[in-house]
Amino acid sequence: MGRGKIEIKRIENSSNRQVTYSKRRNGIMKKAKEISVLCDAKVSVIIFASSGKMHEFCSPTTTLVDVLDQYHKLSGKRLWDAKHENLDNEINRVKKENDSMQIELRHMKGEDISTLNYRELMVLEDALENGMTALKAKQMEFVRMMRKHNEMIEEENQSLQFKLRQLQLEPMDENLIENQGVYDHQAIAEYESQMPFAFRVQPMQPNLQQRF
Questions:
Q1: SS3 46
Q2: In angstroms, rounded to a whole number, what is the distance separating the alpha carbons of residues 47 and 21?
Q3: For the residues of 92-141, what is the DSSP string, one character each?
Q4: Residues 85 and 70 sit within 8 Å (Cβ to Cβ)
C-alpha cells in the first residue's frame, strides 16, 4: 500500500515544518552529491532556512563563483549591477598593484634580479640610493633629537641638584644666624685678651671706660 499524496502547502505547525525542512534539505543535498559524482556534473546548491541560516553544496571540481560566472555568460542575465562590477574591477586593480609591489620588494632585497635588463637595473639602483639617502637623513634627525633630549635631561638634572643644595644649606644658615651673637662675644673676648695690658680699660679709670 503506497503513501498518500501530500498536499503541497505551507506547514502551519512550526515543529513539523522544521522537521520537514531538515529531511527535504538533506534529501536535496544527497541528490546533488550523487549527480555530481555519477554524472561528473558541476552542481551548486544554496538553501536558506526561514531563520536565515544557510546551507550549501558545491561540486569539488568547481566553486560557487565559477558556477555563477558560467551562468552569467550562458544565460546573458546580469547578476551584478554596475556598482558591483566597478567594485570587482577595483579589487582586481588593487590585486595587480599588490603583486607588482611584491615583485619590486623582492628586487629591493636582491631577489629575482637575473631577469632584469640594464635599464631596469639602473632604475633599481637609483631607487636604492634614494632610499639610503632618506634613511641616513632620518638617522641624523633621530640622533639630533636624542642629543637635544639628553641636553634637556642634563639641564634639568643640574637644576635639581642646585635646588637640593639650596635646601641643604638653609638649616645651616639658620644655625649661623642664631649663633652669630655668641661668635661675636667670643671674638671680642679673644681680642681683649690679646690686647696689651696698658691699653686695656681698667675699673679704676671710669672716664676712659665711659669713653669707650
A1: strand
A2: 10
A3: HHHHHHHHHHHHHHHHHTT-S-TT--HHHHHHHHHHHHHHHHHHHHHHHH
A4: no
What are the φ/ψ torsions at residue 116 (nearest 5 degrees)? -80, 145
Residue 203 near residue 209 (C-beta atoms within 8 A): yes
Give the span between the Cα atoms of 98 and 92, in whole angstroms.
10
Residue 44 φ then ψ, to 5°: -140, 125
- Ranked by mean pLDDT, the top range of 151-160, 169-178, 202-211 is 151-160
pLDDT of 141 higher than 70: yes
> Residue 39 has what pLDDT?
94
Residue-wise pLDDT for 91-113, tens only, equals 889 998 998 888 888 888 788 88
Q: Is 146 helix (H, G, I), strand (E, B) or coil?
A: helix
Q: Is 2 strand, coil or helix?
A: coil
Cell of 163: 635646588
Rounded distance between C-alpha atoms, residue 47 and residue 29, angstroms? 10
Check residue 208 and give its pLDDT: 46
